[in-house]
Specification:
InterPro entries: AAA+_ATPase (IPR003593), ABC_transporter-like_ATP-bd (IPR003439), ABC_transporter-like_CS (IPR017871), DrrA1/2-like_C (IPR025302), P-loop_NTPase (IPR027417). It comes from Williamsia herbipolensis. This protein is of the alpha/beta class. It contains 10 helices and 14 strands. It folds into 2 domains: 5-220, Rossmann fold (3-Layer(aba) Sandwich); 223-286, Alpha-Beta Plaits (2-Layer Sandwich). It has a 6-stranded mixed sheet with strand order 6-7-8-3-9-10, sandwiched between helices. A 4-stranded antiparallel sheet has the order 2-1-4-5, covered by helices on one side. Helix 3 (91-101) packs across helix 4 (106-119).
């Protein structure tokens, strides 16, 4: 049975520097949670506290209703940003050791290692030293290390860094599969297109504080709906002053309108058609990247 991962009011200081200030969020069973922010924002600090590598000055980390202790940390699959596998140790030997360290029998550890190296496309490198692998394959081996003991929670720090497109697809599929099994998955990434595509909810952190938290669509909707209209003569500035239109960007034959919640699209369409034929009339939400820039610059 899986439980939510609860981060409750974490605070961490280094002298006068506030690394985390009341960091609070929950990752539900079966949810993929994207944890994003600029370098130094506090993402890795939060993850290290979850794992017990760092101690918080205040706050709690719980799995369900229980504070996470040493035994419960064995249920967490962790992928650090600074890769932690021994470069002069063989891939398979190291993965089997880590699986047994987390409580698996020798037979189960061997079976899991064989399954995961095959799943992640590095089965032919199982007897190679980690340091002899390409950076992308070292990344795959590191993910195998996070998965080999069948964790009930996944905490991954920049798991997509340095991966080629094929490896990104493999890793994305694995995260979706684990979430489908009910595992809470939290990962940090600077690749916001992946975050937007994969995550159910996203938290944006800056200067140690959570500044935006919600579903991907909710967060993207904070910036207003964009309406792309092609056709009307933009030299007439046809959309200026229309009710519900917050802003207009005219680019050649294209007009990009930012709308508020009360905008009447039929009224806007009629205004567009009064200035010429309309070839495109489509709404879209802003990209998560736009919201990220807005939040971190605020």
């Amino acid at each position: 049975m899986t439980h939510p991962l609860i981060i409750d009011g974490l605070t961490k200081r280094y002298g006068d520097l506030v690394a985390l200030a009341d960091m609070t969020f929950t990752v539900h069973p079966g949810e993929i949670f994207g944890f994003v922010g600029s370098n130094g924002a506090g993402k890795s600090t939060t993850m290290r506290i979850i794992l017990g590598v760092l101690a918080a000055d205040s706050g709690r980390v719980l799995l369900g209703d229980r504070p996470i202790d040493l035994e419960m940390r064995r249920q967490i699959g962790y992928m650090p940003e600074e890769r932690g596998l021994y470069p002069k140790m063989k891939v398979g030997e190291q993965l089997r050791f880590l699986a047994e360290l987390h409580g698996l029998s020798t037979a189960d550890a061997r079976d899991n290692v064989e399954r995961w190296v095959a799943r992640l496309g590095i089965a032919e490198r199982i007897d190679d030293n980690v340091g002899d692998l390409s950076l992308g394959n070292q990344q795959r081996a590191q993910l195998a290390a996070a998965l080999v003991h069948e964790p009930s929670v996944l905490v991954l720090d920049e798991p997509f860094s340095g991966l080629d497109p094929v490896a990104v697809d493999v890793m994305s599929d694995v995260l979706k599969e684990k979430a489908a099994e009910g595992v809470p998955v939290v990962f940090s990434s600077h690749q916001l297109d992946l975050v937007q595509r994969l995550c159910d909810r996203v938290g944006i952190i800056t200067k140690g504080s959570m500044r935006a938290l919600g579903t991907v669509d909710d967060l993207r909707g904070r910036g207003g709906v964009t309406l792309h209209v092609t056709g009307p003569d933009t030299s007439t500035r046809w959309a200026d002053g229309l009710p519900g239109v917050i802003d207009v960007d005219y680019r050649g034959a294209d007009s990009f309108l930012t709308l508020d919640a009360g905008a009447d699209d039929q009224q806007i369409l009629a205004a567009a058609m009064s200035r010429g034929p309309v070839h495109r009339f489509a709404t879209s939400l802003p990209h998560l990247t736009d919201l990220f820039r807005e939040v971190v610059s605020a």
